[in-house]
Amino acid sequence: MPTSASFPQLSPQRLRSYILRLPLITRIILIVIVLFWIAGVSNGFQHWAQLIPTEVIAGGMHRINTYPLLHLGLIHTVSNLIALAPLLERFEAEHGSLVTLILFTGPFSTFPAGLYVLISHFLLHTNTPVEGASIWIFLLLSSQILSLAKTQPYLQPPEYGVLPRAYRIPTAVLPLLLILATSFLSLIHVLPPTSILGHLCGAGIGYLWGLGYIKFLAPPEKVLRWIEGKLNLLGRIPHYVSVDQKVYGRYGVLPQTTGGAGSSGIPMSAV
């Protein structure tokens, strides 16, 4: 029989340590989501920030940036924060803080919103408001699952019921299955109301990013490196992730010493 030691223990110390390790843009986005939840107590603010197709077409273009930060209530906010934090942290650690800031205040918000407005208003002729960071969650999940699919193309579920023994699930479709599952749970009122179209729009952009078709949306590393050096962002801003993390480690180049391990001239990276 498994003991309590077999399962990971969530302690306040571990939670605090995890929060303190979050990179810059990840923690800023999470904080802004909490602030939007507080402001969302006002119905007027809710209406101002929601993604409503007719309002966007009428000129409320700010909505294509504000809707992922707004949530329906405390449960919706907390559940999305828990799901978003590790995915966003991983993205920022891989691509750097500047790229994360540019993409999540730009295309990763506006492109899913644009798709949703076009399909909802012009094809389906509906005007359902959407809000919540779940669009980002499925975007990140879809883009990151493609990396896993390269090494593990299929997942073998446990044998159950009438499913054939050799039945396999393509790894790349897991986000789509999760979208269907969350929509079903929302339908039976286990989860807050969700938009399957909104989730699919987010996942679609995530797949395009993961496949490399829209990587041009990220500014060239040469430009980012120049900005970082000119403004000394790595030295001035705590928890900033340098664009050079792929070469020199997650937080850029550490200062060199005249002796010891650093004397060989090889850049040392944070562990």
TrEMBL record:
Membrane-spanning ranges: 18-39, 69-88, 100-124, 130-149, 169-190, 196-218
InterPro entries xrefs: Peptidase_S54_rhomboid_dom (IPR022764), Rhomboid-like_sf (IPR035952)
One GO-annotated biological process of the protein: proteolysis
Molecular-function GO terms, alphabetical: serine-type endopeptidase activity
GO cellular component terms, semicolon-separated: membrane
Keywords, in A-Z order: Hydrolase, Membrane, Protease, Transmembrane, Transmembrane helix
Family matches, as PANTHER family: RHOMBOID PROTEIN 2, RHOMBOID-RELATED PROTEIN
Name of this chain's protein: rhomboid protease
Native species: Venturia nashicola
